[in-house]
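Handout, page 2. Input:
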Amino acid sequence: MIMLSLTQQDVDMMAGWSPQDAAALGEFMGKWNNALVESGEFVDARGLAAPVHTRRVSLKDGVPVVTDGPYAETQEVLGGYTIVECASFDRATEIAAQLAETPHPADAQFTHDLHVDIRPIAENMAESLE
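Output:
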C-alpha cells in the first residue's frame, strides 16, 4: 500500500490553487493510476476526505471517547492510498517514487516535506503482528 500523507493546512492551501494547477495535479494522478492499470499492478486507490472530517475513537478507562479532527497532536494524517500488487517491495518503491514528480504551484507551501509511505498489506492477523 502506498500511503500519501497531508495535513489540514495542506488541504486548505491546495483548495486555493488555480483551476489550472488543480487540473495539472489531477492529470498527473490520472496518468499515474492508468499506467498501473495498464501494467496490471493496480488494485485500488482512494483519496480521503479532509482531516477536519475525521473522528478518532479511543478508550479511556475502558469507555469509548470520540474526538473530532483534525488533531493538534498529530499534524500528518493519511490523505489517500493506492494499493498495488507487484513483483517486489522494490517495485512498489519505484512506483511510489514516481510521485516525486507530482505537480504543484511553485509558491505552494506545504507544512512538511511531501512524502509517501510504502507498507506491505498483511494477509492475516498473525502476519500483521510479525
